[in-house]
């Protein structure tokens, strides 16, 4: 049943990314020609209603890639915005689907960019995947992914098997791997075909960097899925699994929590799945692609503009 639920989430995300249409909100255009809705001016109170809602939020789940930074470049105003959020007594949890760094490494990166961060404030899809797998028997895993994912699984008591020994794997765990080879893909497919449970950190199709996008974990997961005909259990956004962990960490009621991100099909969808307030930022550039059928509660240009509503 768990796999079936995540299959439905995956289908929903792909359907949402294909939709187009006007949301009926006040539209503006920034210097890059990106159309955005500064605040949702709905009939039930418009701007004042939105401001009151934002001011009532006590915890923010904030995406990293495309929201706080792109690649190794800070998105202007993000450092100031996060400082203001924390200074107002609000909780911040950085929530990323990128499984290539540990929370400690992400905290170091954020601090280098001038953003206050502690490892305890960072939840990655690697950590969430390892936590999700606590429900299973500790056994052997074949991993497509980098050291942060392998380490997270090892810390939960799973044994990592290498290419050539994939026949021993009870689980195949797939995330972003920037050293991917055909041999790794073939080994993962072989293990899944032998009956290994197929688990994905996330299915993000791409990763925002300076000047564009790189292939994301979803492109790798998709290759294994297509080759084997087996859909994975997906743990990262927009799955309910990572959202449950995130909300537990914040320790707040859902009505006091908002998620902030740059992807409608990932961040906004995750918020809708969790039943929390959703904020889309256009700083990631994704709104240039198309309007989408899934409507966020609020759209702003950046984290800095969001904080201006407090």
UniProtKB/TrEMBL annotation:
Any one GO molecular function term: metal ion binding
Presence of the UniProt keyword Transmembrane in the record: no
Comp. bias intervals (Basic and acidic residues): 1-14
GO cellular component, one term: cytoplasm
One Pfam family matching this protein: Hydrolase_6
Spans annotated as Disordered: 1-30
Top-level taxon of the source organism: Archaea
Keywords: Hydrolase, Magnesium, Metal-binding
SUPFAM superfamilies, per the entry: HAD-like (SSF56784)
Protein name as it appears in the record: HAD family hydrolase
Organism, as annotated: Thermoproteota archaeon
